[in-house]
Specification:
Radius of gyration: 20 Å
Number of helices: 2
Shape: elongated
Distance between the termini: 38 Å
Oligomer: single chain
Order of helices and strands: HEEH
Number of strands: 2
Length: 86
């Protein structure tokens, strides 16, 4: 198990093996996400928006209108019961 120590300034150095696993480089950003059980998850914020360009495109499907998109969003929200919305 890899560990790190918090400095007097509240900083830590992410160990090299963890940086390598998460593909973190100098200047990379990370998020600390609090889980329901009180623990935190370290989530790398690497990559570019261009990395996901085109992943939703389906050339066999005709484009949706704005009205169709709004209807699909409304149906999805109603079906989920707006979980997590308080």
């Amino acid at each position: 198990m890899t560990t790190a120590t918090v400095t007097s300034k509240g900083q830590i150095t992410i160990p090299k093996d963890v940086r390598d696993d998460l593909k973190l480089e100098t200047g990379s950003k990370v998020m600390f996400v609090k889980l329901r059980n009180g623990q935190y998850r370290l989530v790398p914020r690497t990559g570019s928006i261009m990395d996901i360009a085109g992943i939703l495109h389906d050339p066999a499907r005709p484009p949706m209108t704005i009205e169709e998109m709004n209807e699909a969003i409304a149906e999805g929200g109603a079906a989920s019961g707006l979980r997590g919305m308080r």
